[in-house]
Specification:
CATH topology of the largest domain: hpI Integrase, Chain A
Strand content: 5-15%
CATH superfamily of the largest domain: Intergrase catalytic core
Structural class: alpha+beta
Strand order of the largest sheet: 1-2-3
CATH class of the largest domain: Mainly Alpha
Length: 387
């Protein structure tokens, strides 16, 4: 590879580099770059291009825009890589937030400050830090692929931005009193068994709506999570569980077994029972729409006067009650289908103050049982330290 510079007008220079043969066509490949300024500037650029060619990092100049590349990346790369619901959320982030702000910029001219302004503007609009971080996740992934495709060179400019700290919302769970009121109210509701399965097993909404009768072994008391139902553009879709660990089996509480037996009889009477029929179907026997199920739940909570609780709170309530009863965190992770133990620990860190106090109380019992002194009434107190 060789290069030389020729004058191309006043303070203008043409860099000509012989870059060997194009592997695709077999023809001689020549790179021409025009520079305005001093000859030394043109020489420095030529040296850089030759170095990049030798290292295999050279990127041809192109005018591909951020918006055009995002659409290519979403449709040609991520559509086959992501679950449909995730892809739709990625596409929404690109269409509603990224493309209106920086979509017209040339991809090779995108700078960290462009993205930093985008993030700052979204925060000023009232978007949450979680949304801003999701926007960042999408553009970061698109730029990573652009580097691999040699559409841009150097570092991913998204890495040079500063993200807002993630707001950790306190999880609102049902109090024991609210839980009892809720159970008493829904026990005879048409979808009462479904609500209590969510509360009594911690299963996700989509997983519960995707249950078929062949997934529920009432004789052995085992429930198998094998699929889920989600809303997508155009209707409902059956998909595999969220992660590998989401595909799981667990024992059903005996109270729920009895309720499911009763529910099964009702479905048989309506002609909605069969191995492949949905356990919690609609009034027509088809899959229940997640949004409609949520609406039913919200109306029940409104009637009961329970505020700031959504359907997902039943899963959180299940986990919280289990921890309060001393359940092992690893067991809880498996019941919930979390991919990592750290997810379970981080999600339910709000329970830890009570658990720590209980642990301290238990340790009191252990310590007093070994080093305490008995009072006249038989109770034990800790010895007074020597001064």
């Amino acid at each position: 590879m060789t290069g030389h510079i020729v004058a191309d007008g006043k303070s203008k220079w043409k860099i000509i580099i012989e870059a060997g043969k194009d592997p695709a066509t077999g023809k001689r490949k020549r790179i021409i770059r025009r520079v305005t300024g001093r000859k030394q500037d043109a020489e420095a650029i030529m040296v850089q291009i030759l170095s990049e060619l030798r290292q295999g990092s050279y990127v041809e100049p192109n005018r591909t825009t951020v918006g055009a590349w995002l659409n290519t990346w979403l449709n040609d790369y991520k559509r086959i890589d992501l679950r449909q619901t995730t892809w739709e959320s990625y596409e929404c982030m690109a269409r509603n937030h990224i493309i209106p702000a920086v979509g017209a910029l040339v991809l090779q001219e995108l700078r960290p400050e462009h993205l930093q302004k985008l993030y700052s503007d979204k925060l000023k609009e009232g978007k949450s830090s979680r949304t801003v971080r999701y926007i960042h996740q999408v553009i970061h992934g698109a730029l990573d692929q652009a580097i691999l495709n040699k559409l841009i060179s150097g570092n991913n400019v998204a890495k040079l931005t500063i993200l807002p700290p993630l707001d950790q919302k306190e999880i609102r769970v049902l109090t024991p009193e609210e839980q009892n009121i809720f159970i008493k109210h829904v026990i005879n509701h048409r979808m009462g068994t479904a609500f209590l399965v969510l509360l009594g097993t911690g299963i996700r909404r989509g997983e519960m709506l995707g249950l078929r009768w062949k997934d529920v072994d009432l004789e052995s008391g085992i429930m198998h999570v094998r699929q889920g139902i989600v809303s997508v553009k155009g209707g409902l879709k059956v998909h595999d569980p969220k992660t590998k660990t989401s595909k799981r089996s667990f024992s059903i509480p005996s109270v729920l077994i009895a309720m499911l037996e009763k529910h099964k009889s009702a479905m048989q009477g309506k002609g909605f029972y069969g191995p492949d029929r949905y356990v919690f179907c609609s009034t027509k026997g088809s899959a229940t729409r997640p949004r409609g199920f949520n609406t039913t739940f919200d109306s029940i909570l409104d009637k009961l006067g329970i505020k700031d609780v959504n359907l997902h709170s039943l899963r959180h309530t299940f986990a919280t009650r289990m921890l309060e009863e001393g359940e092992n965190l690893k067991v809880l992770q498996e019941l919930l289908g979390h991919a990592k133990l750290s997810i379970t620990a981080d999600t339910y860190s709000h329970v830890s103050p009570d658990l720590k106090q209980k642990a301290a109380n238990r340790m009191d019992g252990i310590l007093l049982g070994n080093i305490g002194t008995a009072d006249q009434d038989g109770t034990k107190t800790a010895p007074v330290p020597e001064k």
